[in-house]
Amino acid sequence: MSRQSDPLCVVRDLEKHYPITRGWLRREVGRVRAVDGVSFALERGEALGLVGESGSGKTTVAHTLLGLETPTGGTVEFDGDLVSELSGDAERSFRRRTQLVVQDPDDALDPRMRVGESVAEPLRVHGINRVRREAIVADVLERVGLGEDDADRYPHEFSGGEKQRISIARALVTNPDLIVADEPTSALDARVRSDILALLDRIRREFDVAILFVSHDLGVVERFCDRVAVMYLGELVERGRARDVLSDPDHPYTRVLRSSIPSLDPTDRRLGRPLTDTVPEPSDPPSGCRFHPRCPAVIPAVDLDLSHETWRDVAAFRFAVRADELPPEAVGDGPGTTDADAVAPTDVRRAVGLEGELADPDAERAVVEAAASLAAGDAEAAAATLDEAFPTRCERESPTAVERETGGTVACLRHDPTTEAPPVADGGTDRER
Ligand SMILES: Nc1ncnc2c1ncn2[C@@H]1O[C@H](COP(=O)(O)OP(=O)(O)OP(=O)(O)O)[C@@H](O)[C@H]1O
C-alpha cells in the first residue's frame, strides 16, 4: 500500500513499440518506436503537461498509463500497484479512479443518449443505483457550469464548449484521482478555450484530482500546469517546473517548441529555429540524440576553424540534403540539362547561405565538392561528402538525463558535465542571428 506522500503514478522506462508487418503472413519488418524509454512521476493533485510535436508519442504514453494500451517494456504504477497486473476489483477500482477527457467531446458522447444518461454511465458501470446516480449527475453538471435541466437534453443541443463541459462532468462522476486530458481545448476557439482551462483548473483544486494534460500548446501548459515533460520522437528530453522549463529551456528542442509561441520577441524566436523541418519517422529514429539532424546547437565532432554560426550553416546544409529539403534552385537535373535550366555550384551555395569562402580549408573543400555534386544532380554524393566532412558528436553519443539548475532534468550532451561544449545559452546557439 502506498503512502499519501508517494507519487500517484510512476512511469518507469516505458516503451511502446508497434510492429510494422508485411504480406499475408504479417512478417515483422520493423517497429514504430512510439514511446521509447520514458520515465516520470505524477504527484497527487498536480497538473503535469506532456508536450511535443505531433507524433512524439504523447497520446501513446497517456493511453498506456490508463491501461488502454499494453506496454512492450517498462512499467506503470498507480498508487503503488502495477497497472499491467491489475484484475477483478482492483482493476475496476483503477478504472473508476482514472478517467480520460478527449479532444473532441463528440467522440465521448453518444448522440442518441440524453446528457444525464451519458454522464451517469460510468456510475451505472460501477453499480451505483438510479437515485444516487441522478443526485451525483445534478451535482457535477452544476460544478461544470451547466444546469440540472441540461440532463434531459441531447448533445447536439449544446455548443462545442458546453459539450466539453459535459465530457468533463462525465469524467468527474466517479470522483477520480487522475484525469488524463488529451488536447482538451484544441478543438475550441480561443475564448471558450480559456473558459475550459479555468474550469479544469478549478476542478483540479476542488476535487484534488491530478491532471495529465497532453498538449502541443506550450502557452497553455505554462499557464495551467505545475510541471511539464517534453517529448521528442518517443523520448523525454526535458522536464521540470513548467514555469522554469518553459521560460528558460535547457534543451534545444524545448527552445524550438517555445519559439512557436507568437508572443515571444523575434530575437528569442530565431534562437529556436530548427536546422530542418522534417521530423524523422519513429520507425527509423536518428542515431545518438534523436534531435541532432534538426538541432541548432548540434556539436561538431571534429575541430574546424568555423564560427558557431557558420558551423550551424554547414550542419544545416548537411541535414537539409539528407532530409531532401533543399530549395529547387539548389539541385541540378543531372545529364541532359539545357543551359537555361543548369544549376551552377555558386547557385547551390547561395541557396544554402554559404556564398563566401570558409576560413577552414577542409570545410571549404567539402562545401565546394558537395555544391558541385548537387549542381550535377547527384544529391547522394553530396550527402556522403557532407556526412564525412561535418560529423557531429550528437549522432554518435546518446545523451543521458542530467539535473537542470532549477530542478528537473535535461537530456542533451551540451548539459552533460563530461562534455566540453558550452551549454546552449552560453554560446551553443548564436544570439545575434
Ligand atoms: N496503433 C498504432 N500502430 C502503429 N503506429 C502507431 C499506433 N498508434 C500510434 N502510432 C504511431 O506512434 C507515434 C506516436 O503517436 P502518438 O499518437 O502517441 O503521438 P502524439 O504525440 O500524441 O501525436 P498527436 O499530437 O498527433 O496526437 C506516431 O508515429 C504514430 O503514427
Automatic annotation (TrEMBL):
Q: Which Pfam families match?
A: ABC_tran (PF00005), oligo_HPY (PF08352)
Region ranges (Disordered): 258-289, 390-433
Q: Which GO terms describe its biological process?
A: peptide transport; transmembrane transport
Does the keyword Translocase belong to this entry? Answer: no
Answer whether the UniProt record assigns the keyword Nucleotide-binding to this protein.
yes
Compositionally skewed regions (Basic and acidic residues) per UniProt: 393-406
GO molecular function per UniProt: ATP binding; ATP hydrolysis activity
Top-level taxon of the source organism: Archaea
Domain ABC transporter residues, every copy:
9-258
Keyword terms: ATP-binding, Nucleotide-binding, Transport
Family in the record: Belongs to the ABC transporter superfamily.
Q: Which NCBIfam families match?
A: oligo_HPY
The protein's name is ATP-binding cassette domain-containing protein
* Species this protein is from: Halorubrum ejinorense
